[in-house]
Amino acid sequence: MGDKQVGWIAGDDIAAVVARVLAEGPETHAGKEYYLSADLLNGAEVAEVLSAALGREIPALVLTPDNLQRMIDAGLNTAPANMDAAYAASTLIWARQTYEGRMDYSAVTTSTVQGLLGREPIHLASWATAHRQELLDQLA
Asked: Fewer CB within 10 Å of terminal CB in the chain, N or C?
């Protein structure tokens, strides 16, 4: 989405926060909103983190509304087999709104994971290192 940074959170952190919220229940968490971003990165920065963790060059695909439209015009408008079509469509809408600056309010990192779980969140670099072989297998 151009040079726009967005928040990143590890799936394991999402699961741990959800488990805590469910275990503690509405007496503690009713009406609260939790932003969980541990890292604030744009596409080029994500590519740098992944390149360092994997020990090989990972290029950034920088999306703009124009190149998104070119992808659609070229017939690349179907969701990958492992992605629900509605989710894929919402991802494109989110990408456009991010590029246009309408999602800037959400480009923050928080201490929510630390506060709820009493530990540091899993940052992208740590996650990529822990999942290095799986990621390399996907690239093969």
From this structure: C
Which structure tokens are listed for 8? 């990143």
What pLDDT, in 10s, does the model give residues 14-50? 999 999 999 999 999 999 999 999 999 999 999 999 9
Torsion of the alpha carbons at 38, 130, 125 and 12, rounded to the nearest 10 = -10
CB 117 within 8 Å of CB 34 = no
Residue 91: predicted pLDDT: 79
DSSP symbol at 30:
T
pTM exceeds 0.85: no
Tokens (6 digits) for 25: 């229940």
How many Cα neighbours within 13 Å face the side chain of 12? Answer: 11
Work out the number of other CB atoms within 10 angstroms of the CB of residue 12.
Answer: 12
Report the distance separating Cα 129 and Cα 17, nearest Å.
Answer: 22
What average pLDDT does range 66-91 have in this prediction? Answer: 72
Q: How far is CA 106 from CA 84, 102, 122, in A?
A: 24, 9, 19
